[in-house]
Amino acid sequence: MVSVRIATWNVNSLRSRIDRVEALLDRHEIDVLALQETKARADQLPLMGIEARGYEVAVAGVNQWNGVALISRVGLEDVETGFPGQPGWGESAEAESRAIGATCGGVRVWSLYVPNGRKPDDPHYVYKLDWLARLREAALGWRDRDVALVGDWNIAPTDEDVFDIAQFAKSTHVTAPERAAFQAFLDDGYVDVVRPHAPGPEVYTYWDYYRQRYERNRGMRIDFVLGSPSLAARVTGAFIDREERAGTGASDHAPVVVDLA
DNA sequence: ATGGTAGAGTGTCTA
Q1: Is the Cβ atom of A211 within 7 Å of strand B at any atom?
Q2: What is the pTM of this model?
Q3: Which CATH number covers residue A207?
Q4: pLDDT at A65
Q5: For A102-111, what is each residue's pLDDT tens digit?
Q6: Which nucleotides in chain B have some atom under 7 angstroms from a protein Cβ?
């Protein structure tokens, strides 16, 4: 087995942040980068700089709100847009594409953008729970291989993953059914491989753009790398690249990086 | 309850 560095990042528009993506690949010597909220069709993407660095790219999603991508310099094989059984929304499942999987350096990586849910009484919230239940079914069939389920889960699994739980008590991301849906992956043997390497309180991956939430560290931990048991056993380190969230022109999420032996 | 900011692309919608 070869050592692999995998990262995931909700980039909030790949076109508006292509320079930051290239800098991230260079800064951390990333082998596989999973992106979410690419917000562009494949034909709109300026990827020459990424390809010139020796990476292959696969993208999914055709609307301006979602979209996922995988960027790899250790192979990009058996690309699948969406997981088996993935429920669709709106005009088509393709338009609302939220998952792309590929085998990169022997590891099966899924870049996931879990539905936001909008509000607990919104049909989109039901869609979110259904989507997660279908993903769990698929993931059960993958767990005996080296699999990484990475991306923006749009769930804060515990109260300490939110800067002020009282403020979010009636919002999505923290409801009991969402947390149970996340916990189900852990019950099946998938492991949050980042948390042991990013301990302590007030560790977040997302800070809203309003009200200087980043500057005041008022964020949420909603971006995760869940590893199958065999993959989790290969993890040698992980970190949240918090500094990427700083300054003008930042995404509202920070990248999360994991090293595998 | 509302609003605050940002990105898609000109109408609002989504997060």
Answers
A1: yes
A2: 0.97
A3: 3.60.10.10
A4: 85
A5: 999 999 999 9
A6: 4-9, 13-15
